[in-house]
Amino acid sequence: MITIKSEREIGLMREAGEIVGRVLDMLEEEIAPGMTTKRLDELAEQFIRDHQAVPSFLNYAPKGEPNVTPYPATLCVSINEEVVHGVPSDKRVIQEGEIVSVDCGAYKSGYHGDSARTFVVGEIAPEVQQLVDVTRECLYRGIEQAVAGNRLHDISAAIEKHARSFNYSVIENMVGHGIGSELHEDPAVPNYGRPHTGVKLRKGMTLAIEPMIALGRSRRAVSKRGAWVAVTEDGKPSAHFEHTIAIGDGPAEILTR
C-alpha cells in the first residue's frame, strides 16, 4: 500500500534526510586510499548517533524473510563490480583507482532518509569516470519526472533511456522504493520501464530513487548464497546514486541533498 505523507511527516523525513546528506558529505572528505570500509562505517554511525538518530540499515532484515541474517552495519559500501549491499570490514582496504558506492540511511523521530553516492578514489580510467557521471545524471533525470500527475514508470524510463544512450546496462533486479516510517515501502521504483505506465504520482508520495548502472552487459546483480553483497554478472564496474524525494506541487523536493 502506498502511503501519502502529510506536511508534518515530510518535515520529519527532511530532518532524517539532512543527516544522511551530511554523513555522505563527511565521508566524501574522509575517504582515501588505505582506509578500511569498516572505518567509514564507524564514522557514519558516530555521526548519526551524535545527531540523535539511529542507523536505518543496522540489524535490518526484510519482512517476511525470517531466514535472512540481519544486516550487520550502518553503511553499505560496495566497491567496483559490487552493485549494492557490500558489508564493511576491517579487512577490506580501499585502493587508489577504485569506485566506492556508499549507501546510508538514518531514522529519526519515526521516519527514514536514504541516500547513496559513488565516490571516486584517486585516478580512475576515463570510461569508469564516465560511468559514474552518467549514473549521477540518471538519478537527476529520474527525479525530474517525479512530479504529480506523471506515472511511476516515467521515472524509470528516463533513467533507462539516459543509461542506454551510453550503451550501459541497467541492473533490473535491484530497484528503488517508497520510504517513510518504514525503510522500504510501496511502490517499487524500477530503473527501466515504459513511459506513461505505472501508478499515478501524487502529492505527498515519498520515494527513494536509486539507479544502479553497469559498464558491462550485466542486467542482474548476483550474490553468493548467504552473502549480502551483490555483484555484476560479468565482473564489470557498477555505479549507484540515490536520493529520497517528496512529491509536491511542483518539482520534487530532494530530502537528502
UniProtKB/TrEMBL annotation:
The cofactor note from the UniProt entry for this protein is: Binds 2 divalent metal cations per subunit. Has a high-affinity and a low affinity metal-binding site. The true nature of the physiological cofactor is under debate. The enzyme is active with cobalt, zinc, manganese or divalent iron ions. Most likely, methionine aminopeptidases function as mononuclear Fe(2+)-metalloproteases under physiological conditions, and the catalytically relevant metal-binding site has been assigned to the histidine-containing high-affinity site.
Task: Enumerate the UniProt keywords alphabetically.
Answer: Aminopeptidase, Hydrolase, Metal-binding, Protease
Q: CDD domains attached here?
A: MetAP1
Q: Which SUPFAM superfamilies match?
A: Creatinase/aminopeptidase
Q: Which residues bind a divalent metal cation 1?
A: D103, D114, E242
NCBIfam families this protein is in? met_pdase_I (TIGR00500)
UniProt lists the family membership as follows:
Belongs to the peptidase M24A family. Methionine aminopeptidase type 1 subfamily.
Its recorded name reads Methionine aminopeptidase
- Tell me the name of the encoding gene: map
